[in-house]
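Record filed below.
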Amino acid sequence: MEMKTAVLFVLCLAAAAAPGFPGDFAADRYLGPARGKLFDAYFAEIMGGNAGAAEGARRLGTEISKEAARTRARFLAAEKKEDVYYALLSLRNLLHEPHAYFGFPGELRPEVKRISVPLSLRPRAVSGAAMEIVPAGRFPGIPEGAVLRAYNGRKLEEVLYEYLEWHEDASRESLYAGFARWLTRRDLERHPPFGTRRLSFLFSGPEGKNFEIVLPPSEIAGTQEEEPDPKTREYAGLEPVDSGEQYDLFRIPGTEALVLRYTSFLYSVNKAGEKSPVSPALRELADAGKLRKKLFAPGYSVLLLDLRENPGGQFPYGLLALLSGKEVRLPYRRFAYTPLALRDREFLRSFFAKGVSPRMAREIEAGAVPGADLSASFSFDCADEACGGKTFLPEPDSDRREYRVYALSGPGCASSCEQFLSVFRANALGKVAGLPSRGSSVPFHAVRRFYLHDGTPFFIRFKGGVTFGPDGKALDAEPPRPDLYVFPQGDDGLRELISAVIGDVPKDR
């Protein structure tokens, strides 16, 4: 399944404004007088029904009970409709799980608007897990080497905890990237607006002198503008070799090295103009077949596989066959018997709606006995009665070329991308360079519907199991650290990764 950050669904509900609720107290209609009890009921269901509900907060260095107290206070303080929306969004974010899609009533939808200041910031690693926030690129009045020390008169540690409420995943690397972006821009579907008309940024310069930049936020209404793709800039100096539906292949000038960028493993079922549908699996194989012609051509010996921003999709067996000529071990999944799943069979069966074969459903339900923890192991191909195995043996290929392969990883790699990365590592297909992947590979999921005080529904998608890599380690608990940890220090992460491995890259003969 493809993972996309902050996917918000709108429930198309036709609900007339309830009489007797002034605009300033519209929250009473939705949350009612017993708001604490309402939140407590929601939270109990999330903790009792979502597998690993507390894991995201733990990975981010906090506790879900502490986060829940903050969300509960937001429920109690809500007055306007937008307050209700952000209280519900805060509730969903307790999971710090991008797959926990949030469906909210359309009448609560905030304006589609971005509020920002003309300044871009980014994180920079200092040592270990320590981070600094620095300008991304040049800005008038800010000297090169400046470091952000305070924001609106507050210490950054304090402000970081405030941002944590709106952080949608459990990756510490993406936490700092999201924090740096949040300091200068707010997308109202994802975060509340700035609480002030002027933003203050206190920097220290390279000579140790402090200076302040004060900027007024401005609104951009209508469709939210996407930020420029930094990868376009990163690849500007490389030589294009080939491209397919989901990949682009480049050559590093003056070397025997290729860089293969897979932007996604999600292939469409069909394309306009084709007479009959082509399955996503066949599309992926077709892409790999096209790539094979270039990849097995003479003159290349090193391959950098860029998966840093790959949100997943299907499992890429075609790509795997290009990288390995031997049998490889695959990831697997186990269903988690949460307290809610054990006492509510309809809830348990809701996880069988997609990607679960009749055989799997029977075995999982038969295992739902008091005290059960995890089900037996199932492959991710177990979507039919036969059920796939836990290994994959590529077809023999006499034209295969052996490459020294580096997989470039980062928190944008999620879902089936993480599963592929676990196969790459466990089967010693090469080395991993960059940052850990996101830690978001949901093996089973189901929509859980909730109701507000007035009966208005909303939903959160629950996680129902654990994904294990071929080595038996849970992918969701803590993504493995790359063989070569590289936290980009500049605006061109690809160049830094190439430099980190360039000693192993032969020059043109």
Notes: Confidence is low (pLDDT under 50) at residues 3-24.
